[in-house]
């Protein structure tokens, strides 16, 4: 049976109204900042589960584009959604294999949080209803394959990472940071930043630290906002190709 947008649930919160409140405030603040700061680039999501946040992002793109023709003409927002739709991959990475969510709770075991049947089709239908046949892309597959076969090749202003595992987070961040897809001022929304008991040796905390360190000073990041018990948003600062305001100072 085909799924509908009304059947979509959220994995983090049992109370859907609480989920809408938490994500709604964080996502709206992010869109207000990006639109208000005139930051170019697409909106990308990595890990969608049932499509709760995907549909919220799509609605916000439509809402903010409708506010003025200026944004639509000069800052078009393509929406990308990447997901395996089959749940987590097997945790073969040594960091993930000893993490709390894999080794202790077992919640992030292979195929856990697989999308219900029909989720991909529902998203495609909903995006078509909102945007038509263009302006959106849904890519199925594990990140290590899908980001190679169907890479993002344009700037990304907002990236929502709900990919949980350290290894998956590294794959996504390496793609965005390594390809220098993030413009100055872009926002990274990290849904699982406080998972694994917020231990910096695991998950997204470690992935962020290591991937940005590999940029050799081209990128830095600083905190933007916190949402719920789990999420953290960061500003991305692109330093490698920016003039030094202190150069030549005496």
UniProtKB/TrEMBL annotation:
Organism: Actinoalloteichus hoggarensis
Biological process per Gene Ontology, one example term: methylation
One Pfam family from the record: TylF
Protein name in UniProt: Macrocin O-methyltransferase
Presence of the UniProt keyword Transferase in the record: yes
Keywords carried by this UniProt record: Methyltransferase, Transferase
Entry's EC annotation: 2.1.1.101
One Gene Ontology term of the molecular function aspect: macrocin O-methyltransferase activity
Family matches, as InterPro entries: SAM-dependent_MTases_sf, TylF_MeTrfase
Catalytic EC class: transferase
């Amino acid at each position: 049976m085909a799924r509908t947008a009304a059947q979509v649930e959220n994995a983090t919160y049992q109370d859907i109204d609480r989920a809408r409140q938490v994500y709604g405030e964080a996502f709206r603040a992010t869109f207000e900042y990006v639109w208000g700061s005139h930051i170019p680039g697409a909106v990308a999501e990595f890990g969608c589960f049932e499509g709760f946040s995907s549909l919220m992002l799509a609605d916000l793109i439509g809402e903010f584009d409708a506010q003025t023709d200026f944004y639509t003409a000069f800052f078009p927002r393509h929406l990308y959604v990447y997901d395996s739709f089959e749940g987590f991959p097997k945790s073969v990475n040594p960091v993930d294999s000893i993490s709390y969510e894999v080794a202790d709770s077992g919640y992030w075991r292979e195929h856990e949080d697989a999308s219900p049947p029909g989720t991909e089709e529902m998203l495609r239908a909903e995006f078509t209803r909102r945007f038509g046949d263009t302006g959106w892309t849904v890519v199925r597959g594990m990140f290590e394959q899908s980001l190679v076969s169907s890479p993002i090749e344009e700037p990304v202003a907002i990236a929502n990472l709900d990919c949980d595992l350290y290894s998956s987070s590294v794959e996504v961040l390496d793609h965005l940071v390594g390809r220098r897809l993030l413009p100055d001022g872009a926002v990274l929304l990290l849904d699982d930043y406080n998972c694994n008991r917020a231990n910096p040796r695991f998950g997204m905390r470690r992935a962020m630290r290591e991937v940005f360190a590999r940029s050799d000073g081209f990128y830095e990041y600083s905190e933007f906002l916190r949402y719920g018990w789990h999420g953290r948003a960061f500003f991305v600062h692109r330093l490698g190709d920016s003039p030094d305001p202190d150069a030549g100072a005496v």
